[in-house]
Amino acid sequence: MMTSDARTPARLRRTPSWLINLVSAQSHRLVSEGFTAAGARGYHYRLLAALDEYGPSSQADLGRRAGIDRSDVVAAVNELAAKNMVDRSPDPSDRRRNVITLTPEGSRHLAELDEVVIRIQDDLLAPLSPDERTRLADLLARVADHHAENRRSG
């Protein structure tokens, strides 16, 4: 794991990609620990959030919205369905597809995971003020959106 301290060369400590990687590793650890303690995985949160925001979806659309590969969506939906957090039913317009719907239990679990995410953000961004946190999120979203747009147009 990469670490940064007083012995890290200054040129690395001034390099955004190096710093993003450091913070990403810490973020990944916090998210993994937080979701594991809540009996969930990151895929679960992403799928539940997409269903909550966009409503019932086919597995393919759900995977695209959540940024999850199709093969991983199937396994994660199976896990959520086994816990009664989503309902999977045949699409009336195309019986070959399934429509995934958020259940009340899934909504309750999503609210619990939202609290986990808030705690993770507070831990990860502890040295920043609320305004700095907002500015950092805005800047990172701008960079992410730029690269997503380049992938779509390229």
Tell me what you see in this structure.
- With 154 residues, this protein is mostly helical.
- It has a domain at 41-119: Orthogonal Bundle (Arc Repressor Mutant, subunit A), CATH 1.10.10.10.
- It has helices at 10-13, 16-37, 42-54, 59-66, 70-82, 104-124, 130-153; strands at residues 57-58, 86-91, 94-102.
- α2 packs across α6 (104-124) and α4 (59-66) crosses α5 (70-82).
- The longest helix is centred in the last third of the chain and has 24 residues, at 130-153.
- The chain starts with 9 loop residues before the first helix and ends with a helix.
Instruction: Assign the CATH class of the domain at 41-119.
Output: Mainly Alpha
Look at the structure and give the mean pLDDT: 92
Order of helices and strands: HHHEHHEEHH
Shape: globular
- Provide the helix percentage: 55-70%
Helix/strand-derived class?
mainly alpha
What is the makeup of the main sheet? 3 strands, antiparallel
By CATH, the superfamily of the domain at 41-119 comes out as Winged helix-like DNA-binding domain superfamily/Winged helix DNA-binding domain
CATH topology of the domain at 41-119: Arc Repressor Mutant, subunit A
Count of beta strands: 3
Which spans of ≥5 residues are poorly predicted at pLDDT below 50? none
Biggest β-sheet: strands ordered side by side in the sheet: 1-3-2
Computed Rg: 18 Å
Give the strand content. 5-15%
Q: Please, how many helices?
A: 7
What is the second-level CATH architecture of the domain at 41-119? Orthogonal Bundle
